[in-house]
Amino acid sequence: MIIIIKVNKLIRNIFIAVIILLLLLAFSSSYTSFSIDNLAFVIAIGIDKGDTQNNLKISFQIAKPSSISKNGSSEQNTAIINTVETSSINSAINLMNSYIGKEINLSHCKLIVFSEELAVEGVGNRIYTLINNVQIRPSTNVVISKTDAKYYIENSKPSLESLPTSYYEIFPNSSKYTGYTVNSTIGDFYNGLTCNSCQPYAILGGMIETNDSNLEQYSSEDPLNAGNIKSNETSISGKRGAENIGLAVFKKDKLVGELNAIETVCFSIIRNQVNGFLITIVDPQDEENYLDLYVYHNNDTKSKVDIVNGTPYITVDCKFDGRIYSMKDKSNYLDSNILEEISSSASEYIKLQMQNYLYRTAKTFNSDINGFGRNVLSKFLTKQELDEFNWLENYQNSFFTVNTDVNIKSGFLITET
Fold first, then answer.
1. What is the CA radius of gyration of the chain?
2. What would the pLDDT profile of 257-283 be if each residue is shown by its tens digit?
3. 293-345: per-residue pLDDT in tens?
């Protein structure tokens, strides 16, 4: 009987010891190399040419917790930027680890910015290095800045968001309702580099540098040319210095050109990446006035490629509905004949813009950023025939036919009842 009591007491003591040990493990402070306290989370990377030949200047925008001021309010100093010049991205990360005393972590990086100067020389090796890093997400956006990448990041201060990470995630979404920019990720760029039937592209970034003479220029600008703007060339003024309007066009890994706002809209129309966009046309009833129309897809844009005597013939079919945004006194926008005239003018305008855009990508850039080459694969019986045709070089010989059908309705509030 005494032995049984002693055994039960021993089991109870062991059970209590195990509970105490588990509690100690659960509430003890863990400070290993994998602790969040030992990591520095990078939210943006800027890559510029270095002062020394073959070197790079790499800037890391690193998030830091918001500090609490004396009055209890949260301060908005949520990120710092450190720059290092070295021979490679990996070397820069290693040096930065030593400098800041924490391990650089790229799992929350939202933006990678290359300077235009570097992009002209080629960014292929840097893209391959970044995509090979398991911490970099394929959804990370890529920007080509018309200024230094570091300068662009320093001036990307969100005016409507409390955190830079939120702004970096949100701003590409404007492509869906304006078409003036695109949602271009490092995953898309890598696919373009390795693709035999398409080419890479990226967001075109720049700085707001408007002076009085520029404001005068834009105030007298023809409204029909309002889409001929891109980053570094707008009349915008505001708290944030950076802007993202237009598209950077690549041939393989080298920057070969830039698209303005309306050309970027055309790019997005063909790829079905824009829900709606604004255009301005001459009022068919009054040539001294203009109409603002908001146009949106009726059906997805269809593209077809035919090869005739070794020459690509590309047909693009697109249908739109639209609404009249601008109004004036004594205008009868309920008249079916007037709406038909407006629809015809809008259709011709979009057709002209798209034809100009397509021939520019072919004749000026020789870069199939729209990926028409994917429609060519079925035209050849063997891979050898396809390789001999060499679509990426043959694209410059393409001819284009654009069919547009626009159905403009009256304004949102002014309708038949």
1. 28
2. 999 999 999 999 999 999 999 999 998
3. 999 988 899 999 999 999 999 999 999 999 988 876 666 777 788 889 999 99
Cα gap 342→323, rounded to integer Å: 10
Q: Tokens for 202?
A: 């990226």
Nearest to 3 by CA among 316, 396, 37, 11: 11
The Cα–Cα gap between 262 and 357 comes to: 9
Provide the pairing of β-strand 103-105 with 141-145. unpaired
Q: How far is CA 324 from CA 243, 296, 345, in A?
A: 28, 12, 13
Residue type, 238: G
Distance CA 106, CA 34 (A): 14
Q: How many CA atoms lie within 13 A of 95 on its CB side?
A: 15
Residue with tokens 């007491």, as numbered in its chain: 9
Alpha-carbon gap, residue 386 to 377, rounded angstroms: 7
**Nearest C-alpha neighbor of 282 from the set 338, 335, 354, 346:** 346
Q: What is the DSSP string of 156-190?
A: ---SS-SSHHHHHHHGGGGGGTT-SS---BHHHHH
**What are the domain boundaries of the chain?**
35-267, 275-417
As a whole number of angstroms, the distance between CA 130 and CA 266 comes to 30
Residue 220: predicted pLDDT = 43
Please state the pTM of the whole predicted model: 0.84
Contact 246, 180 (CB under 8 A): yes
Distance CA 25, CA 114 (A): 46
Q: Which CATH superfamily is domain 275-417 in?
A: Nutrient germinant receptor protein C, domain 3 (3.30.300.210)
Mean pLDDT of 166-195: 92
